[in-house]
Amino acid sequence: MQELKKRILELKEEFLKVYEKLLISDKLTKLAELEKEVAEPEIWRDVEKATAKNQEVARLKEETEPYELLKMQIEDLGELIEISDEDLKEEISGQIEGMEKEFAKLKKALRLQGPYDTKDAIVRITAGAGGTEAMDWAGILERMYLRFFERKGFKVSTLERVTGEEAGIKTVVFEVSGTNAYGWLRSENGVHRLVRLSPFNAQNLRQTSFALVEVLPVIKADTNIEIDEKDLRVDVYRSGGHGGQSVNTTDSAVRITHIPTGTVVAIQNERSQIQNREKAMEILRGKLVQMQLEQHAETIGELRAGESAGWGQQIRNYVLQPYKLVKDTRTGYEETDPEAVLDGKIDGFIEAYLEA
Questions:
Q1: Average of per-residue pLDDT across 278-299
Q2: Quick one: DSSP state of residue 301?
Q3: CA-to-CA distance for 282 and 124, rounded, in angstroms?
Q4: Cα 115 to chain center, whole Å?
Q5: Contacts of 117 (CB under 8 A, 6+ apart)
């Protein structure tokens, strides 16, 4: 039993280090405070605020419950070992092995320690130059990510979607909600390149297509990200549907330009101008934070125009012809089954990036 006592003690010590590093106790304190707040009937006078707090409660529970459960199991088994005899040795060894495997899974959260990794994410896919070929490729990427979101249990809402004339999409914007959504998805930010035999070419020639994937953290208004109002130009205009058809009869669409960096965000998806402005500001904050990370700037005010990654940063190649291979240009990680990757199995690429 001495060997088992040593194993459970080592597991407990390592577990408590991670427990402390992830600030689980602080999160539990915050969770208790929020649960008390949402239990008060008065909070529901502001439905939006109450809903946001409820979502935060759900997120904190999802983050802390696995650690609390494992902590209790380790403590209980430690006590059981002290009073057990050799007859239970095999059973206890099996329980420790199960806990070690669970802890190995939980330790992956240590890779998601970026300042915004716990945030929800905005994902924008834009077809590159090349007409129908590029728009079809953007549509294939859209399906790939939707399949990945589904497998991860993320909730997805479409903020904007513009279809191509013949196939695929020109652009689509998703808001993705779930535990560490931005942390999991930030590795996808960059240019994705496809090489295949063209289904749109009579000669069936090999074609190269590009699409840009942008991943931004969702930054709400009640954060310490400050944007000077004098640095913003806000334009309102009438929302336009497919082919220029009016979506509604009011000037509800909003375009916000951050003048110092030239960053532009336009939203026409929501029903009111106020809602579109709030969503546009949310995306703008995410864009500026992304630029801040890329430029290693300490404040928004230090950002410089034209110095962030965009179409110049190619991160992954998807080759379907003359051979089959998907390879990440940053980590060297590769998969030889492009069909599986394009069906949403991109975990290996994400985990390789996080490990690196």
A1: 80
A2: G
A3: 14
A4: 13
A5: 180, 182, 183, 186
Residue 119 near residue 219, CB atoms below 8 Å: yes
Is the domain 121-217+307-355 a CATH 3.40.50.150 member?
Answer: no
The answer to whether residue 72 scores a pLDDT higher than 60 is: yes
The per-residue pLDDT for range 104-143, each reduced to its tens digit, is: 888 877 788 787 888 899 999 999 988 899 999 999 999 9
Domain boundaries, the chain: 2-109, 121-217+307-355, 229-302
- Eight-class DSSP state of 261: T
This prediction has a pTM of 0.71
Both tokens of residue 79? Answer: 């006590």
**CA separation for the pair 173, 267 (Å, rounded):** 10
- How many Å apart are CA 209 and CA 128, to the nearest integer? 7
Report the alpha-carbon distance of residue 97 to residue 95 in Å, rounded: 5
Would you state the structure tokens that stand for residue 297, as one six-digit string?
């700037």
Cα distance between residue 86 and residue 312, in whole Å: 64
Query: Which residue(s) pair with 175 in the sheet?
Result: 122, 157
Name the pairing type of β-strands 206-217 and 334-335: unpaired
Predicted confidence at residue 223, as pLDDT, reads 64
> What pLDDT is attached to residue 149?
96
Cis amide prior to 260 (ω within 30 degrees): no
What is the CATH topology of the domain spanning 229-302?
A: Double Stranded RNA Binding Domain (3.30.160)
Tokens standing for 46? 């502001």
Please give the average per-residue pLDDT across 310-332, as a whole number: 90
- pLDDT confidence tier of residue 242, bands split at 50, 70 and 90: very low
Closest CA to 170 of 205, 214, 215, 124: 124
Q: Highest mean pLDDT: which of 200-209, 210-219, 251-260, 334-343?
A: 334-343
Q: 153-156 contacts: CB < 8 A, separation 24 or more?
A: 153/178, 154/178, 154/181
Burial class (CB in 10 A: 0-12, 13-18, 19+), 3: exposed
Amino acid in position 42? E
Instruction: Place 84 in a pLDDT band, splitting at 50, 70 and 90.
Output: confident
Task: Specify which residues 246 forms β-bridges with.
Answer: 240
Are 171 and 125 in contact by the 8 Å Cβ rule? The answer is yes
